[in-house]
Amino acid sequence: MTAPPHDEAHGGALGSRLNWLRAAVLGANDGIVSTAGLVVGVAGATSDRAALLTAGLAGLLAGSMSMAAGEYVSVSTQRDSELAALAMERRELREQPEAELEELTGLLEDRGLTREVAREAAVQLTRRDALRAHARVELGIDPDQLTNPWHAAWASFLSFTVGALLPLLAIVLPPASVRLLVTVASVLAALALTGWSSARLGAADPGRAVLRNMVGGALAMGVTYGAGSLLGAAGV
After folding, report:
1. 46-to-23, 120, 143, 228, 231 alpha-carbon distances in Å
2. Could you tell me where the DSSP H helices lie in the chain?
3. S-S: 160 plus which of 13, 47, 67, 109, CB 3.0-4.6 Å?
4. Which residue has the higher pLDDT, 140 or 45?
């Protein structure tokens, strides 16, 4: 009777790991695109290495801090909601245990068990750990694996930083004559990789994701480079 929750916990843990990996890939992708757009735009206005480095570092720090702060706020809100739901469930179990037992029985019936088996399973799960049973079956929450806003913030900060370093190094390290070509080529290659990775993690078509990612990145770089060239020509 305890096997389904055990399997569910493993499935939830796997889903959580996949979500973290997907978030890391998307964070790196954001770092690549936003920083590439910034430094290529500046490169359209000037070839000064110091200006490119300054702009790239500013974009990297601003973007990574913004990603970390946004993720912290988002995950903190999610965690607060999970804690509030668990507190309400705990109160309901204390005040109306029979109604909660009947509710758990109905939820297990909805999953395909017969009334008799569902009732017996609900009784055993409640006897073992009522809150955990309701949290997993009713709320879809594992009390032992609540989201951690600090982990999410650091993961977003690091993934964005790693992604942003690629276009930053690509624009400042090569000679001026080839830096734009090197940057565009390396960014498109990295976007192909992140597009493929995100598609594989989501069990989607890699070809379409790679193409979409590369076109989006190329468009971002093209627009910012055009804007930078116009401003540079105008002497702004």
Report:
1. 34, 74, 54, 8, 10
2. 3-45, 49-95, 97-110, 115-134, 149-172, 179-201, 206-233
3. 67
4. 45
User: Rounded CA gap, 14 and 87, in Å?
Assistant: 26
99: its two tokens: 């109604």
- Cα–Cα distances (Å) from 42 to 8, 51, 79, in that order, read 50, 8, 40
Q: Phi then psi for 143, rounded to 5 degrees?
A: -60, -25
Half-sphere exposure of 172 (CA within 13 A, CB side): 18
Cα–Cα distance, 206 to 204 (Å, whole number): 6
Summarize pLDDT for 3-52 with one digit per residue, the tens: 444 444 444 555 555 666 777 788 899 999 999 999 999 999 998 999 99
Residue 193 three-state SS = helix
Confidence of residue 198 (pLDDT cuts 50, 70, 90): confident
Residue 118 has pLDDT above 90, yes or no: no
Residue 85 in tokens:
């739901």
Q: How far apart are CA 184 and CA 168, in angstroms?
A: 11
Side chain identity at residue 74, one-letter code: S
